[in-house]
Specification:
This is Transglutaminase-like domain-containing protein. There is one protein chain. By secondary structure, the protein is of the alpha+beta class. It has one domain. The protein has helices at residues 5-19, 33-38, 69-78, 82-95, 111-117, 122-131, 186-189, 203-212, 220-228, 243-261, and strands spanning 97-98, 119-120, 140-149, 155-164, 170-173, 183-185, 193-202, 237-238.
């Protein structure tokens, strides 16, 4: 993809922001992607009304997470392992609140830490979503990149999960929405915003990372694995020729995975 000089410059700015530890928004206010864009503008494949089936206020398991049988049925009909995808989305949409990190801080919580605190930012939401599906054969990707709103020209670094349905149609999964509107067809979301990935990891590749991660001093494993993609050993989808950025992602992933496995 050919980018205009301005867009190339913007990509470099956003990449710098990522390396500086900014994720989800360009300020440090507790404002998430859902607050900025999803409210009233996400994708709702089912109606928010009580019709043929009850829309329960609380889950049958006694949790405070709402349950939407229409949305559950849509997930089951749309995706392989749709019931598990529904449950994973419920948690990141309704049970986790967005929390921005202070300047020069970029701590990647384990899924357990996010579930316990019920707070996190974009990558914490994505890791929690992934953890609920990690043992399944899911057609999806973890994506690091940047998002630009076409109406306001607001651009910010972001991490999201890309999911594919039974027919190969791509969807973007977003947390924190507090609504049943955060699994959005890619062609719908691209009408109002532009997403440019910088690194994409397949679902099974993340499982490989988890399996192979071992606690090596001074992050030797993370450095070794990050260097392996340069040698062509793995087919990572790299969209920017920024080795430092990719190595930093692998280092942080390694640290988080070791704590997660512990």
């Amino acid at each position: 993809m050919q980018l205009k000089p301005f867009m190339k410059h913007l990509v470099m700015i956003v990449t710098t922001l990522v390396l500086s530890g900014i994720c989800c928004v360009e300020t440090y206010a507790d404002v998430s992607y859902a607050d900025l864009f999803l409210t009233g503008r996400g994708y709702k494949p089912v109606e928010d009304i009580w019709t043929k089936k009850p829309l329960t206020a609380h889950s049958p398991d006694g949790s405070c997470i709402p349950d939407n049988l229409f949305y559950k049925e849509w997930c089951i009909n749309t995706f392989k392992n749709g019931e598990q995808i529904y449950e994973a989305y419920r948690e990141i949409a309704f049970d986790i609140d967005y929390r921005a990190e202070p300047p020069k801080t970029d701590y990647w919580q384990t899924p357990g830490e996010t579930r316990q605190s019920k707070k996190g930012d974009c990558e914490d939401s994505v890791f929690l979503f992934f953890s609920n599906l990690s043992g399944l054969d899911i057609n999806g990707d973890l994506v690091w990149g940047w998002v630009t709103d076409k109406d306001t020209s607001i651009a910010f670094a972001h991490v999201w999960y890309q999911l594919f349905d039974k027919h190969g149609r791509a969807y973007i999964v977003e947390g924190f929405s507090k609504e049943w509107n955060g699994i959005i067809p890619l062609e719908t979301i691209t009408r109002v915003e532009e997403r440019v990935p910088t690194l994409m990891l397949r679902h099974d590749q993340v499982n490989y990372l988890i399996e192979k991660a071992t606690p090596i001093s001074d992050h030797g494993w993370g450095r070794k694995f990050a260097e392996s993609f340069e040698d062509g050993q793995f087919s990572w989808d790299i969209f920017l020729n920024n080795t430092s950025f990719v190595k930093e992602i692998f280092r942080k992933l390694h640290d988080m995975i070791i704590r997660y496995k512990g």
